[in-house]
Amino acid sequence: MKLSASHLTLAYREGDAVSYAVHDISIQLPERGFVGIMGPSGSGKSSLLYLLSGLKPPTEGEVSLDYVSLTRLSEQERAKIRRERFGFVFQQPFLLNHLTARENVMVSALRHKGLDAEVNALFTGLSIDHLASRFPTHLSGGERQRIAVARAMAHQPEIIFADEPTAALDHTNGRAVIELLASYRERGLLLLVTHDPTMLEEADFIYKMEDGRIRE
Ligand SMILES: Nc1ncnc2c1ncn2[C@@H]1O[C@H](COP(=O)(O)OP(=O)(O)O)[C@@H](O)[C@H]1O
Ligand SMILES: [Mg+2]
Predict the structure, then answer these.
(1) Does the beta carbon of 205 sit less than 6 angstroms from any atom of ligand 1?
(2) Which residue's CA is minimally distant from atom 16 of ligand 1?
(3) CA-closest residue to ligand 1 atom 11
């Protein structure tokens, strides 16, 4: 087991009232595989990903990575873990428009001393060679998101956090992006958040969220 959470809680204070985005969640995630987190809008899915990846400090509870509590690390140490051991894919691809698709991925790989050959192999492996020399403005939304997936994989992270990566795409393109992401399941953990159950058909395990809690 790599990533785990115990009694994880994220509360917001609104005047005298307290509302919970994440409420007392304890989970243990496998080292490899495809784990889905499904729930309606506002159920706390993004908040849970922010906590698990150390982007937000919990109000209560803790997240452990290899038995080290993220809460006890400095912000720099958490940032280093996110940079080197985690990969992220969001609803929007956030590519740099003045760089080609390949250069966008190289920016991430270079930071980790990735080699040209590795980035080429990644593009080939994901069957997106034909997109490599194009600029983001000349790619469709689905193609841009495929590049964002390649970028998240370029440094061979242990965990990929994907927050609604298909929400801006039609069903066919959404499924294609999921296929690419799911191909990572042998190498590491894919933790994918979505409100769309059809995107989780191949998941090994699905957590269902409701009002900040995992529903059993
Ligand atoms: N900064 C904030 N202040 C107050 N409430 C927030 C804040 N951010 C999120 N929330 C609330 O937390 C709940 C969960 O939000 P979120 O994690 O974004 O859900 P999801 O990703 O499932 O749509 C929602 O009710 C939302 O309104
Ligand atoms: Mg969300």
Answers:
(1) no
(2) 44
(3) 21
69 belongs to a structural domain: no
Query: What's the pLDDT at 113?
Result: 59
Q: Could you tell me the residue range of the domain that residue 103 belongs to?
A: 31-55+74-215
Q: Which of 1-5, 49-53, 167-171 has the lowest mean pLDDT?
A: 1-5
Question: Over the stretch 140-183, which tens digit does the pLDDT of each residue have?
Answer: 999 999 999 999 999 999 999 999 999 999 999 999 999 999 99
CATH number, domain of 108, equals: 3.40.50.300
Residue type, 170: D
Instruction: List the Cα angle 72/75/79 in 5-degree steps.
Output: 115
Q: Which residues of 62-95 are buried (b: 16+ CB within 10 A; e: fewer)?
A: bbbbeeeebeeeeeeebeebbeebbbbbbbebeb
Closest ligand 1 atom to Cα of 48? 17
Model confidence pTM above 0.85? yes
Per the structure, how many domains does the chain have?
Answer: 1
13 ligand 1 Cβ < 6 A = no
pLDDT digits (tens, 9 = 90+) for 84-125: 999 999 999 999 999 999 999 998 766 655 678 888 899 999
How far is the centre of ligand 2, averaged over its atoms, from the C-alpha of 83 (Å)?
21
Q: Which of 36, 7, 17 is nearest to 189 (CA)?
A: 36
Nearest CA to ligand 1 atom 25: 42
113 lies in a domain?
Answer: yes
> What are the residues whose beta carbons fall under 8 Å from the beta carbon of 151, sequence distance 6 or more?
87, 95, 104, 105, 107, 108
